[in-house]
Amino acid sequence: MRFSNEFIARIIGAIFGAVFAAYFGANLARWLDATEQGPAYIFIFGLLGFLAGLILTPIFTIRPLRRVRNNLAGMPVERLVAIIGGIFLGLIAASLLTLPLSTLPNPFRQIIPIISAILLCYLSVVILTLRQNDLRSTLSFVRPERNVPQKTQQVEDQVILLDTSVIIDGRISDICKTGFVRATLLVPNFVLLELQHIADSSDPLRRNRGRRGMDVLSFLQQDCPIPIRFTDMDVTEVRDVDSKLVALARELSCPIMTNDYNLNRVAELQGVTVLNINELANAVKAVFLPGEEMAVKIVQEGREVGQGVAYLDDGTMVVVEDGKGYLHDEIGVVVTKVLQTTAGRMIFARPNTDS
């Protein structure tokens, strides 16, 4: 029979807890001058210690170690090297300060060196972690890859981070089939986890959106000519997915593909390149200039008095002044103004009374 590590830790913790608690119970009975009830104290406290050790040992031993192991396994190599190097440099700096700090009077000569070692290690880890991209560039310059053409290596290093919204949207699959995207698509595990939570939602609409995103990822893996990779890279300093994406894009110096307006603004403010599918769709829509004529069908009333609203085949909204009287009719209109925003394109027109 094979026992798990957590089960073994529980048994060991229960034994130590029972021994320690029984010893405490014996001393407590002696302190209360209740030597006759000493065995009862030992038994009760020993039982409580056994139960406490059985329940609490994994919480303070196995589970924290498991979280540390998982974080180390998913940590980028550059960050791991930066942390280890920072601790090493901090300990070296602390050892150099040991001799002058040992001349301080008691108790500072015992306390200050320990505090300085902790602070120096922390500062070294923070500095090297923040400059880990520079560290990676330095290491690649000192030790370049052999037998790898430079152009091929640059193409392989080009990646695009995918946001949850762009995966659910689905248009990424059509764009990839056209061949306009040449870089590798990179999906972090925290994006995949968010997509799984959406697919498992109790709300039918959210559940369908999540399942659609899963189908899109399946297509990108199997039938898309563009390579797609999943990565364990994470940014533990932030919690929400959008902030993780922006921080990871800054680390990798790569763009984010999304159609989320808020993520678009936040990423641009932090200097991250954004590939917005909505902007791409607007860019390839047919261009109408003021004065051009076209035929549209008025499908609903507008917000203002007398306005009618029509839609082009690509979804562009056309607001027709004095078009309310042509509701459900197809009429010729003349373009008067075109508004272009990140949310889409809007065309204003008036009925063509000359035709």
How would you describe the overall organization of this protein?
With 355 residues, this protein is an alpha/beta fold. The chain folds into 4 domains: 5-65, no CATH class; 75-134, no CATH class; 150-282, Rossmann fold (3-Layer(aba) Sandwich), CATH 3.40.50.1010; 286-351, Nucleic acid-binding proteins (OB fold (Dihydrolipoamide Acetyltransferase, E2P), Beta Barrel). Helix content is 57%, strand content 15%. The chain is built from 14 helices and 11 strands. It has helices at 5-31, 38-60, 62-74, 77-101, 108-130, 132-142, 150-157, 164-169, 171-178, 189-199, 204-222, 241-252, 261-269, 277-283, and strands at 159-162, 184-188, 228-231, 256-258, 274-276, 293-297, 300-301, 308-311, 317-320, 330-341, 344-351. The strands form 2 sheets. The chain has a 6-stranded mixed β-sheet with strand order 6-10-11-9-8-7. A 5-stranded parallel β-sheet has the order 3-2-1-4-5. A hairpin with a 6-residue loop joins β7 (300-301) and β8.
